[in-house]
């Protein structure tokens, strides 16, 4: 058993979020240095500081020390608190950047979470509020986190002005279930949300028309919803986006998203999202690339049994995450071709023995 | 068949027992790096290869969509090739 005060050391600004999450979950102290130390503008960015503040609020007793130059931090994690919170997210990143770590922590909090985040709801780098609501949360349900799990998009806010607002509700669990998800099934329905704020509301319909022109050939069960937000609810900046998801008979979900770009017609945004969805579908597996890390984390935290999941090849982010998991939890995954008889199949089966992580923060009622 | 097996990456080994960076694993290690080290032999000073780290690389949830990779989906045959993944698509190719 590692000593609770054992210090884990990393360098560089990359993978900051997952390292902070792993540190808080495992209770191990972490020191990250050389954060952009060679850069003209060294140290932590404003959104990273903002995230640290959010994590400080979300926990109790966490000590965060930032060096004078901002190129090194020391995190001594406290107890995951949860409860009702409000937070103004930095406008340099979308709400997804801040909510992703919260989603990983909230099930293991002391109290059920009800957090209101304000900022940008959709941008080109982070998971949008729509993906988080329609794709990320159903992934948590695989692990038995479901009762009262909800994300409400109260206001939308496009970059750069923001003005969006979401509320995330998450129950607490004692332990997460072990999954055995190796059958991707076949796609039975396609859903989508198009939204357009502070621009011509017809843009939503134009994106939907374009998406349908490709998707109609596959299956009849397609429902693309045009989500209308008006006045105050539509944030401070103009923008529009199309989020698509395809669900299989075994509840595997693939998703894609394209957002407005200057000088590009809404039809082309619609087509871009659609083709990106087809690319995800072609890659196959039970979990799409954007959610690999979330699934792997929950597998490690699962009960002391072998969990299995079929996914595509790991992304570079996932590879580092697997290494970091081993550093924090001493658990490594077995990764083998999902279908050894088919040499063209690039899908892999990831399996690991769960650590039997128990939510010790939970208040016993 | 043996060659196709060799081509397949041994992910466990790559991830847990090498010091390759995640990017090198995903995109394959570039041979050019090795060449450069060879050429430096006659120099008295050797420039220590600095780990190139993109300071602006974002810790992002979505990976950017490359327009080139989507080009193939303009092709009718390509669109048909994934029909077997849908419930309406029969048993496969």
From TrEMBL, chain A:
> Which residue numbers delimit the RNA 3'-terminal phosphate cyclase domain?
9-335
Q: Which Gene3D superfamilies does its entry note?
A: RNA 3'-terminal phosphate cyclase domain, RNA 3'-terminal phosphate cyclase, insert domain
What keywords are assigned to this protein? Nucleus, Ribosome biogenesis
Which Pfam families does this chain map to? RTC, RTC_insert
Compartments in which it is found: Nucleus, Nucleolus
Task: Give a Gene Ontology cellular component term annotated to this protein.
Answer: nucleolus
Q: Which CDD domains match?
A: RNA_Cyclase_Class_I
Location (main, coarse): nucleus
GO biological process: what's one of them?
Answer: endonucleolytic cleavage of tricistronic rRNA transcript (SSU-rRNA, 5.8S rRNA, LSU-rRNA)
Q: From the UniProt record, which GO molecular function terms apply?
A: RNA endonuclease activity
Looking up PROSITE patterns in the UniProt record yields: RTC
Domain annotation RNA 3'-terminal phosphate cyclase insert: ranges: 182-282
The entry's family comment says: Belongs to the RNA 3'-terminal cyclase family. Type 2 subfamily.
This one is known as: RNA 3'-terminal phosphate cyclase-like protein
């Amino acid at each position: 058993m590692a000593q609770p005060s054992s210090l884990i050391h990393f360098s560089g600004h990359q993978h900051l979020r997952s390292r902070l999450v792993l540190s808080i979950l495992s209770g191990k102290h972490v020191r990250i240095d050389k954060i952009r130390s060679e850069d003209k503008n060294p140290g932590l960015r404003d959104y990273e500081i903002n995230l640290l503040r959010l994590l400080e609020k979300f926990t109790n007793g966490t000590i965060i020390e930032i060096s004078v130059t901002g190129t090194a931090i020391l995190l001594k994690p406290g107890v995951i608190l949860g409860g009702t919170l409000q937070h103004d997210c930095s406008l340099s990143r979308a709400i997804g950047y801040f909510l992703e770590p919260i989603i990983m922590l909230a099930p293991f909090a002391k109290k059920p979470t009800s957090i209101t985040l304000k900022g940008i709801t959709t941008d080109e780098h982070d998971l949008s509020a729509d993906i988080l609501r329609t794709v990320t949360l159903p992934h948590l349900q695989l692990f038995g986190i479901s009762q009262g799990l909800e994300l409400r998009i109260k206001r939308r806010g496009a970059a750069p002005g923001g003005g969006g607002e979401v509320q995330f509700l998450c129950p607490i669990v004692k332990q997460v279930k072990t999954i055995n998800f190796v059958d991707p099934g076949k796609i039975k329905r396609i859903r989508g949300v198009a939204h357009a704020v502070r621009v011509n509301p017809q843009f939503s319909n134009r994106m939907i028309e374009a998406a349908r022109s490709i998707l109609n050939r596959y299956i009849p069960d397609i429902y693309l919803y045009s989500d209308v937000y008006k006045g105050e609810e539509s944030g401070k900046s103009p923008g529009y986006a199309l989020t698509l998801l395809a669900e299989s008979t075994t509840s595997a979900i693939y998703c894609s998203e394209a957002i407005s770009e200057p000088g590009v017609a809404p039809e082309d945004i619609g087509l871009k999202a659609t083709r990106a969805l087809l690319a995800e579908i072609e890659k196959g597996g039970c979990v799409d690339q954007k959610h690999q890390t979330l699934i792997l984390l929950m597998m490690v935290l699962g009960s002391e049994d072998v969990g299995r999941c079929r996914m595509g090849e790991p992304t570079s982010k996932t590879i580092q995450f697997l290494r970091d998991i081993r550093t924090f939890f001493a658990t490594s995954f077995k990764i083998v071709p999902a279908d050894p008889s088919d040499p063209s199949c690039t899908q892999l089966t990831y399996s690991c023995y769960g650590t039997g992580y128990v939510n010790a923060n939970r208040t016993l009622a | 068949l043996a060659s196709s097996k060799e081509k397949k990456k041994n992910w466990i080994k790559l991830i847990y027992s090498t010091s390759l960076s995640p990017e090198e694993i995903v995109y394959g290690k570039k041979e050019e790096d090795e060449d450069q080290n060879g050429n430096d032999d006659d120099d008295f000073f050797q420039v220590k290869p600095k780990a190139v780290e993109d300071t602006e690389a974002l810790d992002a949830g979505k990976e950017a969509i490359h327009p080139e990779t989507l080009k193939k989906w303009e092709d009718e045959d390509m669109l048909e090739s994934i029909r077997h993944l849908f419930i309406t698509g029969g048993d496969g190719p």
